[in-house]
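re: ur question from earlier - yeah i can do the single chain one, its not a big deal. heres the input i used so u can compare w yours
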Amino acid sequence: MKTKLFLLLVFTSSILFAQDSLKQDLKLKSSLVTFNPSKVAKNTNGINLGVMDAYQKQRINGINIQANPITLLYLLIPKAIEIPNDGDETATVNGLHISTGGMMDGKKLNGIGISMYHIAQVTNGISINGFNSNIGKMNGLQISWLNNSIEKGNGVQLSFSNNAEELNGFQIGFGNEIDSGNGVQIGFYNSTEKLKGVQIGVINKSKNRGLQIGFWNKNAKRTLPIINF
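and the output i got, formated as tokens:
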């Protein structure tokens, strides 16, 4: 029942945000099939095909498929790619996004994204990534092999390492960090500045009081093994 409700909420939010994005980029022409890179930016109402993740300031409603033959070079970038500032963002995708690379400067993803990396201002739905994901505002499910990062979100982060400035939901991974939020952290190492909820792991650290279950638990008042509160 909870799974069905979650999927319904994701689907509904995708439709709402898609309707909102229809107001954007009205000056651009729209086509049933579009391609990237292109000399002239076009919106898509159907399917967009591209290479090298060469997105423009466009809206893609439907299916977006990208092929990037040099994806592994992404791992050589010396530092994490930051979320794009207003004015620097590119595409909004409403629907299904599949890429052997990913977005580095996305505006919004409303729907389901499957890629190697995902850097966007807003994501509503499900984001599944091979390397990492860095999102400004997230509502839904964020899954990555190496790292998940969000500034503000509601939902679930699942990765080797999860980081959130503000999160209401769950973090599941080897290492989890939250500045503030409500929910549950499950991992080997859990750390938070202010969490209203539960930490379950081998090492749990919190600067406020909450329920901690693990081998070593430290909060603002005491340090205890097994259970702390």
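The longest helix spans residues 2-21. not sure if urs matches, ping me
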